[in-house]
Amino acid sequence: MPKVSVNGLKLFYEIEGDGEPxxxxxxxxxxxxxxxxxxxxxxxxxxxxxxxxxxVSASDKPEGPQTISLLADDIAHLxxxxxxxxxxIVGASFGGFVAQEFALKYPSMxxxxxxxxxxFGGPNHVVPxxxxxxxxxxxKGLNSEERMRANLLLAFTPEYVQTQVAEVDEIVHLxxxxxxxxxxxxxxxxxxxxxxxxxxxxxIKSPTLVLSGDADVIVPVQNSRNLAAKIPGAKLNIVKGGSxxxxxxxxxxxxxxxxxxxxxxxxx
Length: 268
Hints:
The protein is α/β, with parallel strands linked by helices. The chain contains 11 helices and 8 strands. Strand 7 (208-213), helix 9 and strand 8 (235-239) form a beta-alpha-beta unit. Helix 2 (68-81) crosses helix 3 and helix 5 crosses helix 7 (165-177).
């Protein structure tokens, strides 16, 4: 089980495949498990690096604030420690905040950038319905399967939850067994609420793809449109019927879009 000392703590990571390196950054309170439909698929073309962020699952769980900048630093240190000079960076939701910060802070380490179901944050972030915010902000039953099931209804389409029962059970189990302490959950929540990259996005030099599902009730799709409009030359792709976790529900389409973008020659 590979762990590496990074930024004063031990971070758990895994590498699969060969080819150009791709880092997959998980979303809010999630670990490497969230990419279970991407890791092996993308590893056919790429050297895929997945990890548990600080505080999550198999990585160390330090006290103190979790900032988006600190999480970006962790990834930079991880790559440097395992001998990777630059990589493609893919981030979903909260991981999209970290991916933006990484691209801004470490431009020479960022090959291409893929931002999924995310936002630039700040005052112009398009917020979800109040009851959705309330459910995400609560820490009641934090690592319980009951809590997972309730919040899955927000992250997935109702059809998926009703028809893909075995897979939903697997996801609930994965999240419940990859525990996140309450102080880490709240610290990530605070970091998310205070994130704002809008005024800095023009500085992103990496070729960028913004992906979103048009049925996302957690990060409404307008956020992706707004995000793509601020990043020079960014491509925008909206997945029809896609929920917040469209990379799980429509994994084949997602993996194909990401692979095509990362392997395409880019001429600015």
